[in-house]
Amino acid sequence: MLPLLLTLVLSGTNPPPVEAWAQKACPAPKKEPDSNVEFKAALEARATCLKKAMNQSIDRVLLPLKKKDPPAFKQWMGLQADYNRWVADACAAIEEANWVDVSTGERSMGTGYGGTEQECLQRQYAWRGFYADAWARGGWKAIAAAQDAYAQQAPKREDGLRQYQQKAQAAAAQAPVQVAQSDTPSQQLSRDDWKDYNGRLERAASGPQALAERQCALVPKADASCAQGFRASLTAQLDFSDVLGAPGSP
């Protein structure tokens, strides 16, 4: 892989059964990219493929409910729409963190922009697709095993997100009300810019709890730990470790 692209590869991975599901649904390209453009195109293509595979798995859950349990069908539809919005916000937040320097209050841009977001989308779609596929087959043990694996990573990821939010909030408090437009790739962020930025971070941080509660309300005979386990499966994938204490863009 091209050296300048190595920084785009996120450190976190899905549990092996989820990775196996993703590889079967959308095999990762074997050919190494010859350019940054090819690399990002391949990432986006696989994310698109995994989103399609995820939706197909969800359809296998939804279609029987449409006639059998219309209220549950409606709840699933609403939940998935909100999940999609949360994933878009969360993965965009992780991408933007690569380019916002909380120590200087500046946002930069580079040719690698977008790669981290697509990696994030791939992992989220893979987990959601695996989850729905297992649900449709009654594979509750497979779901529980995957959630246990995510739970091992979640505390560290959640702590990292809290730390990053604190740094971003501190940067926002020192930001100017207005900034001059820059003619370079680096741009100082205004207070309004930081308000939007921190709003997205907060949505990324708070979204999993509400999604988990709604998902577990649909789980047959869910136990008391259901929401905690599902929440962990989402927060475990919010990895801000690469940008904590590392100013500047990749």
Question: How does this model look, in words?
Answer:
- Residues 190-203 have a biased composition (Basic and acidic residues).
- Residues 174-209 are annotated as: Disordered.
- The chain has 250 residues and is mainly α.
- It has one domain (11-235).
- The chain contains seven helices and three strands, in the order H-H-H-E-E-H-H-E-H-H.
- It has helices at residues 16-25, 36-68, 70-97, 115-137, 140-173, 191-218, 226-235; strands spanning 100-101, 106-107, 187-188.
- The chain has a three-stranded antiparallel sheet, with no helix packed on it.
- Strand 1 (100-101) and strand 2 form a beta hairpin.
- Helix 1 crosses helix 4, helix 3 (70-97) runs antiparallel to helix 6 (191-218) and helix 5 (140-173) packs antiparallel against helix 6.
- It is globular and about 60 Å long.
- Mean pLDDT is 90; it is low at 1-11 and 246-250.
Main attributes of the structure:
disordered N terminus, 7 helices, mainly alpha, 2% strand, disordered C terminus, three-stranded antiparallel beta sheet, 250 residues
What's the arrangement of secondary structure elements?
Layout (H helix, E strand, L loop, with lengths): L15 H10 L10 H33 L1 H28 L2 E2 L4 E2 L7 H23 L2 H34 L13 E2 L2 H28 L7 H10 L15
Antiparallel strand pairs: 1-2, 2-3
Helix pairs in contact: 1-4, 2-3, 2-4, 3-4, 3-6, 5-6, 5-7, 6-7
